């Protein structure tokens, strides 16, 4: 099979809650005449992002073309999960014209790019481009660690110390591997914040990198699909904070699932989730909420203290209960404490 016959893959990476799923939903609705397939990797076993994307399924990207990997970070389960899943997508009765991969917010993209060199798939598939989605406001404010001031104070106090939190390393690696950076939620950020975010990413990047504003996941798909980057053949120009390490594990992060009874007051739950993030350094909360007297389930997504909710579909035959995935750095996540805190909203 020649290079021209390779199926292009777009890898969409980005920090937790940056807007990757919203972007992919937009691409699915505007596929530029391409038949798409989507592979979504989540941290935790409640497939919120996958459910959102499945609700967007249509003739351009049917339900069987949307696959979830929830057994761990995609860059750590290449042989067991990623390669077989890619082979399954390529073996569909109607071969997809383009595959989109949404990595988890904790994934390092470079190990994933290396996987495209595996003999089983390297002659049949190529990385068309790596897109890093970055929350403009969060980048401007430097919120890559629970307490950036404390980390900075440590660094300044000891000239021999070169310490970065895991979140900074994840973000850096995503930028280092990117062919394009999208500053998401640009409608929520001020002009000075967007300028500061651009400057930060430009200084960080090891090579010239286009940086574009994006609001509500809307951007011309022609900007995303068809970059022809062949990123898997360009690894030397995509450095990583973890170069030289053969193995990569996400022991710095942990997730738990909290189940709650039906919620009477959604606003109180939102306030509780926001307070939980502020007081216990929680990075991300996402899941579905059963609200009393409401026939539709409520989708809740939170990044730090910012909480968003919407009613997305009827419960139907699904088990009507509230299940939330809570993600934090390892030392900050105590299941009993988090569960007790969230039960205040019941």
Key features?
5-stranded antiparallel beta sheet; 346 residues; 2 domains; 7-stranded parallel beta sheet; alpha/beta; Rossmann fold; Hypothetical Protein Yjia, Chain: A,domain 2
User: Major sheet: order of its strands?
Assistant: 3-2-4-1-5-6-7
Total beta-strand segments: 12
Helical stretch tally: 11
Poorly predicted regions: 145-165, 246-251
* Radius of gyration, taken over Cα atoms and rounded to an integer in Å: 20 Å
From the N-terminal CA to the C-terminal CA, the straight-line distance is 58 Å
CATH-defined architecture of the largest domain: 3-Layer(aba) Sandwich
Q: What CATH first level of the largest domain would be assigned?
A: Alpha Beta
Oligomerization state:
single chain
Shape: globular
Number of discrete domains: 2
Strand portion: 15-25%
Q: Let me know the CATH homologous superfamily of the largest domain.
A: P-loop containing nucleotide triphosphate hydrolases
The CATH topology label of the largest domain is Rossmann fold
